[in-house]
Amino acid sequence: MVVMSKGFGVFSVPEYVECLLGGGGLVRDSEVNVMEVVGILKSYGVVLDAYSNNLIYIAEYQFLVFFPFFKYFNGKFSFKRLMRHWWHDRFNFEYAEYCVRAMMWHGGGGLDEFLDSADFQVRARRVIEARFKGNFVVMGVDQLFPDFLTEMLRVSAYCSGLGQFWRVMADIFLGLSDCYDGGEVKSIPDVVEYIRAGLVANAMKPISYAVRVQEEVYEIIPQSAGLTFLADVAVPYVEAVFFRGTPFHGTVSYNAQAYQIPVDQARFQYGALYADPLPIGGAGIPPTLLMQDMRHFLPVYLREFYCDGVRGEDDLRVKICMSFQKSMFCVTTAAILGLMPFPRDTQDSFEEGVNRVYLQKWMSRLEASRLQDVNEV
Fold first, then answer.
1. CA distance linking residue 63 with residue 137, whole number of Å
2. How far apart are CA 169 and CA 47, in angstroms?
3. Is residue 252 very low, low, confident or very high in pLDDT (cuts 50, 70, 90)?
4. What domain of life does the native source organism fall in (predicted)?
């Protein structure tokens, strides 16, 4: 098995392709990198667990609510929790909604296709009529703006889909940490294989969504739609959040004449694999919220590693972001290998050629990413 033991230097698509075909990963294999990746994924798993629970709660209990003031309380409102909420002693669930909006904006996958289908329109109409039966004001607004309430249900459907996806990923990341603590995971290829196996094991897990109105259950995304975890939610999530993302306010000009934002969404490169860690911690940068949440759940060994640096905890969010990018390259590697057309170690020349072309396309997309940067640290 070929394992990357040192940095590649100048980014080379053929070199990375050979490494992946040989059983290596995109991130350089070292004890420090393994410790960083596993440690940050443990913290991320705890945060994703909270994000997942909240998104599913919003989807099931806050759908078609015009002013969901208490959507972040998961149905457990109290004055004490309200004070903690206002003091920001809480999870920053706004980041989860940022990811929902990014997925909706970029679309793609079976979930997006279903939410644009006639079947969804019919199901949404049933829920809307049941929810606002006898409410002439809302139904009057619905007549004037027929897509308004339907779009609210689309958002709820994305909340449910992303919540179900994160539920699986949280379990994978926390399980990975347990294996690392038990000495079963010792290298970056071990990390990638564990995540890949988790993705493959849950690949066909059905994605569905139903709500209750007046004790009657309405299926908005039925299991008969055939939506699954990997193809219809995981892949669009990677595309929208890892690769494309959205331009961060204050870092680029939104002036069309400045040409700093591509006209074509497919050319967006603002995702987690491309973002500069230095702005993390600045106001208006969505990942700042995620880094702030993860800092509360860092394993002792990772926090000690950060504290040994020159600035100690003064640049903690930046350090977390750098480790997080390493981990996301590992997750991306696992997703790429999990979707590979043929087994990585195939001996058939035709199948090997197809795999090689497949990997070359992925690596070409990563040429402008921070892959070289994370391998130089």
1. 18
2. 11
3. confident
4. Bacteria
* DSSP string for 156-207: HHHHHHHHHHHHHHHHHHHHHHHHHHTT---SHHHHHHHHHHHHHHTTT-B-
Q: What angle do CA 201, 202, 204 make, to 5 degrees?
A: 110
Q: Which pLDDT tens digit goes with each residue over 109-119?
A: 899 999 999 99
> For 120-131, what is each residue's pLDDT tens digit?
999 999 999 999
| Number of C-beta neighbours around residue 94 at 10 A | 11
d(CA 49, CA 57): 12
> Distance (Å, rounded) from C-alpha 152 to C-alpha 148?
7
Distance CA 25, CA 328 (A): 12
Indicate the pTM of the whole model.
0.92
Look at residue 273 in the predicted model and tell me its pLDDT.
93
The answer to whether residues 321 and 277 touch, using CB atoms and an 8 Å cutoff, is yes
The answer to whether 2 and 19 have CB atoms below 8 angstroms apart is: yes
Q: What number of helices (H) and strands (E) belong to the chain?
A: 16, 2
User: Any idea how long the chain is?
Assistant: 377
Structure tokens at 180: 């690392």
